[in-house]
Write a structure and sequence with these properties.
With about 375 residues, the protein is α/β, with parallel strands linked by helices. It has helices at about 5-15, 35, 45-60, 70-75, 85-100, 130-140, 165-185, 210-215, 260-275, 305-320, 355-370, and strands at about 30, 65-70, 75-80, 80-85, 100-110, 150, 190-195, 230, 235-240, 280, 290-295, 325-330. The strands form three sheets. It has an eight-stranded parallel β-barrel with strand order 1-2-5-6-7-9-11-12. It has a two-stranded antiparallel sheet with strand order 3-4. A two-stranded parallel ribbon has the order 8-10.
């Protein structure tokens, strides 16, 4: 795709933003890498990879470390009922804080076997009442340490929430349970809605705007399809990947939301807030938190120097949007012996050697901090 086409799409995408919008707070930079920071229960991460990952976080001037908290990894069942063991995450949270990073936790599947619809650990019809107990326990355990939570990871993907035909209704119940549980324990905590994958076809996900309409009981005109109460949120979390295209690519379908089509999402959120379907406690449309982003290092479609160029372009677009508060680069350390079939958005390789994208991003972030576009650590 030509540079002229890319610039034209960027201009069109952001033409919908208000020309006289007030100056937005500077963008917060976040990082996420379960492999490098968390590891598996009883095993933990490779200490060398953890060291590399913190080094990358510092080079990016990151303020936030996002972590997935896997429900089945902390849940325990005994004669007295369900309890929770947080030891697998306590050290991770403490290490993040020691490195000057604010932990941001996503409560998500797989659920334990006794809290699912098919009696197996996984993602099939997780029980909202049990999820509320999980959320309450998490908020109580990390009160004063964690101020921002998100509910579920990519609920519009069948591998994270099933069955697909019921996913939106299930997520509505799970989100409401999580919001209520966390706020009951820590009223000042922030709870974000969404964590949605960006596209339908060619992916397996439900397109995010279609999913959002279903969660809020709305049709294409955003009119109610049935009676549903208001959902409250402190922000909308989204994953605006364009892994095979430039960041300005809006997605193959009209219900997709990528970095290049964030105005679509913002428009829908404004209408939903006006109609009291999804709004902040103050009755406003929620701001956007881009809680996963990146480009593959092993892509045959986007090679260097385009990977570095597109990564910087995506961050520049996020910083220019008046309602984006955060962007999180997903995966810092690439896997060993990376192949085309493995996910690899790492900014250093498995031996800690920096890739060109890290240098390009770090350089842009330093300039953006001086310009007041990005929050300094």
């Amino acid at each position: 795709m030509s540079a002229r086409w890319t610039l034209a799409v960027i201009a069109a995408a952001f033409a919908a933003l208000p020309a006289s919008a007030p100056a937005a707070p500077p963008l917060e930079i976040g990082v996420q890498d379960e492999g490098a920071f968390v590891g598996l229960p009883g095993i933990g991460p490779n200490p060398r990879h953890t060291h590399y990952a913190f080094g990358v976080a510092h080079k990016l001037h990151a303020r936030v470390e996002k972590l997935l908290v896997i429900w089945k990894w902390v849940a325990r069942r005994g004669p007295g009922g369900e309890t929770f063991d947080w030891s697998h995450y306590d050290g991770v949270v403490a290490a993040a804080r020691a490195h000057g990073l604010e932990p941001q936790l996503t409560l998500t599947a797989p659920a334990p076997a006794w809290d699912t619809g098919d009696g197996r650990a996984g993602v099939y019809r997780p029980d909202p009442a049990a999820f509320r107990r999980f959320a309450e326990a998490a908020a109580a355990h990390y009160a004063g340490t964690v101020r921002r939570w998100t509910i579920w990871n990519e609920p519009n993907w069948p591998s994270w929430l099933a069955p697909t035909r019921e996913a939106a209704r299930i997520y509505r119940r799970l989100y409401r349970a999580g919001w209520t549980g966390i706020k009951a324990v820590d009223p000042h905590a922030e709870v974000l809605f969404g964590e949605l994958a960006p596209m339908g076809r060619p992916e397996a996900a439900i397109p995010p705007l279609r999913f959002l309409r279903a969660v809020t009981c709305r049709n294409r005109a955003l009119e109610p399809t049935r009676r549903c109460g208001t959902l409250f949120t402190d922000g909308f979390a989204h994953h605006p990947y364009t892994l095979r295209w430039p960041p300005a690519f809006p997605g193959p379908g009209p219900d997709d939301v990528t970095m290049g089509s964030l105005p679509r999402l913002r428009h829908v959120l404004r209408v939903l807030a006006r109609r009291h379907a999804l709004e902040t406690p103050r009755g406003r449309a929620p701001d956007l938190y881009l809680t996963e982003y990146g480009f593959h290092a092993n892509s045959r479609r986007i090679r260097e120097p385009f990977r570095s160029r597109y990564a910087v372009e995506g961050y520049r677009m996020a910083a220019a949007h008046p309602h984006v508060r955060e962007i999180v680069w997903y995966q810092l350390v690439g896997p060993r012996h990376s192949t085309e079939r493995r996910w690899d958005t790492g900014l250093v390789d498995s031996n800690g050697h920096p890739r060109p994208t890290l240098r390009a991003l770090a350089r842009w972030i330093r300039k953006a901090i001086r310009a007041g576009l990005v929050a300094a650590r």
